[in-house]
Specification:
five-stranded antiparallel beta sheet, Cyclic Phosphodiesterase, Chain: A, about 30% helix
Length: about 180
Amino acid sequence: MKRIFIAVSIDPSNELLALMSELKSVLSKDRIKWVDHGIMHLTLSFLGDTEEKRIPELSAILKDCCAGSGSFYFKIKGMGVFRNLRDLRVIWAGISDDGNLERLYNKIREGLNEKGFPTEERPFSPHLTLGRVKSVGNTNSVKALIEKYREKEFQSVQVTEIILYESILMQTGPVYKPLSRFSLQ
């Protein structure tokens, strides 16, 4: 079994790195596991534990879904939290897209469902996880940062491929190993 997911790799801009630095500074007394900027990605589908013998079948699905889709751009813009300010779980940067990302997501999801791969039931909510919150003493700091960056555009990302990753959980944090890359050309 391999713990796998499908994602778009993100090479963070200086503006996004500056946001991460400010978040870490302002929230330094809180218990937050920050995402390593070297492994940032936008998850399209988390498949979890998957039998290794199914990976070639999964690769064929992804190759078919991606071929000829064409590259496109989306923007990393704004920030927010999951759950809510009273029950913080994740601090994220938002994704602004003209529909291409969601079309690709739906195409992949449909391909996975046809072949019996599990997909999430909840609606697609593209975001870039910045930190996973264990506890925050005062949420007013988080609220102020959300307000400050609500409309801030951090970068434009060109999507030319998607990547099938294996997630290897280590005590020091997850290691993401690319298993295959699928061009959108």
